[in-house]
Design goal:
The protein is α+β, with helices and mostly antiparallel strands. It has a domain at 5-194: Ribosomal Protein S5, domain 2 (2-Layer Sandwich), CATH 3.30.230. It contains ten helices and twelve strands. It has helices at residues 88-98, 122-137, 146-157, 168-175, 211-228, 249-252, 260-284, 290-308, 313-324, 350-359, and strands at residues 5-16, 26-42, 47-53, 69-75, 106-112, 178-182, 188-192, 199-204, 329-332, 340-345, 364-367, 374-376. Strands 1, 2, 3, 4, 5, 6, 7 and 12 form an eight-stranded mixed sheet that branches. A four-stranded antiparallel sheet has the order 9-10-8-11. Strand 6 and strand 7 (188-192) form a beta hairpin. Helix 2 (122-137) packs across helix 4 and helix 3 (146-157) packs antiparallel against helix 4.
């Protein structure tokens, strides 16, 4: 029997720029050591058989000891039709077909350490590693191009279903490390060689979330606000800042023309763009000011909570408990409305922080920065 080829890709934390990528702005994100894996064996029949870890195993502390999987067969001899709104396994294969890749029969088993439906980009990482595995199995050189894989994954998840998401998850997972992503016009990626003294701790609120609903609720009011101010020369959140990075108070006064809901959403995104710039400066400094980084993370969370409404009482309780036990700062991770949050802390304080939150009944995990999509031994 042939030995399987094994591939994996990481989840991510969004440090700064939550809900900014789809506005053509910027994001600072870091890949972490929660990974989605795919074991692949070629088979002669032109069918892609996929066994994927059961979606009921959706917690941060879930372990697939019982080998629970869901099964899917995609017959390459037949047109691929979707059976659900988020039929991402089929859409991944269909996008590869649209691009002319000569696909072959495969047996694929997919496993994950990433909690499902918790803002940890489980669907995006699933797609990224599946595309990597399929391209590598057919010997296509694009399998070694993380940017190409990320773009194909974005098409399979967002474009194919006309969903409101951005590119942060796909590119951070595929590239790995810590990255600064700029989505203004020509997409630009700058790896950050930041060395952090502190650590990140992830918490699972155990609250499921509706990612597309939350994204739309946060995205649409901001886009409508920008459209309402277009006649005033406003086309982007960037237009509220001068070339030197300072706020343009004359243009900020235009917010008074908006209704309260649209004004609140746009104002939050303006503040979060300014916070990203400050956070990026901290991360690019020769020595990172840990407490300042924590303060900026918490400030970002406050604007996401109060301006975009994406926090929950449970997330607030978890973050308050972690901060009370020494964390420097923290925020919701992903689109919000439930899911996971994280804090940045001194490694010496991590055990007490984890114990305090787990005492409340919420799983926690210490995280390390990790590499991008790859072939594993």
């Amino acid at each position: 029997m042939n030995e399987p080829d094994v591939f994996s890709t990481p989840s991510r934390l969004c440090l700064f720029g939550e809900h900014q990528d789809y506005l053509g702005l910027e994001v600072v994100a870091v890949a972490i050591d929660l990974r989605f894996s795919a074991r692949v064996i070629k088979q002669p029949v032109p069918v892609i058989h996929i066994a994927i870890r059961d979606s009921k195993l959706d917690r941060l502390d879930s372990v697939n000891d019982a080998q629970q999987y869901e099964y899917l067969a995609i017959d390459l001899r037949e047109p691929i039709g979707y059976t659900s709104k988020r039929d991402y396994l089929r859409s991944s294969v269909r996008v590869l077909q649209k691009h002319g890749y000569p696909l072959t029969g495969l047996d694929i088993r997919m496993d994950s350490q990433i909690p499902i439906g918790k803002g940890m980009c489980s669907s995006s990482t699933m797609i990224v590693v599946l595309i990597k595995a399929i391209l590598a199995s057919i010997g296509n050189p694009d399998s070694e191009d993380p940017r190409k894989i990320a773009e194909l994954a974005f098409q399979a998840e967002v474009t194919e279903f006309n969903e409101p998401g951005g590119r942060m998850d796909h590119y951070t997972s595929a590239l790995g490390g810590m990255v600064h992503l700029d989505f203004d016009g020509e997409f630009k990626i700058a790896p950050l060689a930041t060395r952090l003294d502190g650590c990140f701790i992830l918490f699972d609120s155990l609250e499921q979330k509706n990612t597309t609903q939350v994204l739309a609720a946060a995205k649409v009011p901001t886009q409508e606000a920008l459209a309402a101010l277009a006649s005033c020369g406003i086309g982007s959140v960037r237009d509220f800042f001068r070339p030197d990075g300072s706020r343009d108070e004359t243009r900020l006064a235009l917010l008074a023309r908006l209704d309260p809901a649209r004004r609140r959403a746009l104002d939050a995104n303006i503040d979060n763009y300014a916070l990203l710039k400050r956070g990026l400066a901290v991360l690019q400094a020769e020595t990172v000011d840990n407490r300042r980084l924590g303060e900026l993370l918490s400030a970002h969370h406050a604007r996401l909570r109060d301006g975009l409404g994406i926090s929950t009482p449970t997330l607030e309780k978890i973050l308050d408990t972690a901060l009370a036990h020494g964390a420097w700062g923290g925020k919701v991770n992903g689109s919000g409305g439930g899911g996971c949050c994280f804090v940045y802390a001194d490694a010496a304080d991590a055990p007490a922080i984890i114990e305090a939150v787990e005492h409340l009944g919420y799983p926690a995990r210490l995280l390390r920065q990790d590499s991008g999509v790859r072939r594993d031994s």
